[in-house]
Amino acid sequence: MPSPPESWPDLGKRLAGATRFSDLRWFDDLDSTNRYLLDEARAGAPEGVVAVTDHQSAGRGRLGRTWSAPPGSSLLVSVLLRPAMPAAEAHLVTMAAGGAACDAVFLTAGFAPSLKWPNDLVVGRLKLAGMLSEAELRDGRLDALVVGVGINVNWHDFPPEIAETATACNLVTGDEVDRLELLERFLERLDDRYATLQGPLGFEVTLAEYRSRCATLGREVRVELAGETVEGTAVDVNESGHLIVESGGSVRELAVGDVVHLR
């Protein structure tokens, strides 16, 4: 493992004393932080391991897509959790992580992104971050959950294919943003939101907070599915994490899909 930034030990000490995230692992380059932690989970690593990298050579997004960013431009982090909940409720951890990422951006960079269903952070119509959670099951039960987050922090020139749809913290603020501070705030807020989720009324609180931040709700949307496209009004995200769309006088419940905010 290559050398992390000089301030890394201090960050580790602060987080170990205040959160469940006591084992921080830094890489200059890694194929995928999610892949690394899934392997660690299968080998018996405990909850709280964090993998951070300057660059991912095979970062993964939803639906088998790749996630690519220039070295040092983004916060690329995954956390290993072992939530005591049914596998069918694991989406709530992703919702909690989305709220934590929004909190971290606000506390570090001074602006508040919104959530776009199912797993993006956006500023207006522009994508700031994406999330990917991957579960490890044992005998049909949730054994571990790896939550990966990629936040565009200090980008100046996006490649042509995303130049009109993406943004970064520095482009919103006009100033460079400290990735390590953003990481610290994210892990602090995730620790708090994860504890809330597993406490009394945690399910209800987490879902309500997600809905309050979700820019998709109340919007006219186009949802691109594998075999069709649905247009209508996004009216809710239900307890299963599915998007509810009113379309042509009927109501559709969508488990997956690519959403375009129309207006």
Please state the average pLDDT score. Answer: 93
Helical run tally = 6
The shape is globular
The CATH architecture of the largest domain can be given as: 2-Layer Sandwich
Could you give the count of β-strands?
Answer: 14
User: Gap between N and C termini, in Å?
Assistant: 46 Å
CATH class of the largest domain: Alpha Beta
Global Rg: 18 Å
Helix and strand succession?
Answer: HEHEEEEHEEEEHHHEEEEE
- The biggest beta sheet, please? 7 strands, mixed
CATH topology of the largest domain: BirA Bifunctional Protein, domain 2
What is the CATH homologous superfamily assignment of the largest domain? Answer: Bira Bifunctional Protein, Domain 2
Strand order of the largest sheet: 1-2-5-9-8-7-6
Strand content: 25-35%
Protein structure class: alpha+beta
Describe the structure.
- The protein has helices at residues 8-18, 33-42, 91-109, 169-173, 179-197, 202-213; strands at residues 23-27, 49-53, 59-60, 66-67, 74-81, 114-116, 120-123, 126-138, 141-152, 220-224, 229-237, 243-247, 250-254, 258-261.
- The protein has 263 residues and is α+β, with helices and mostly antiparallel strands.
- The strands form 3 sheets. The protein has a 7-stranded mixed beta sheet, sandwiched between helices. Strands 13-12-11-10-14 form a 5-stranded antiparallel beta sheet, with no helix packed on it.
- Helix 3 (91-109) packs across helix 6 (202-213) and helix 5 crosses helix 6 (202-213).
Features:
alpha+beta; 263 residues; SH3 type barrels; BirA Bifunctional Protein, domain 2; 2 domains
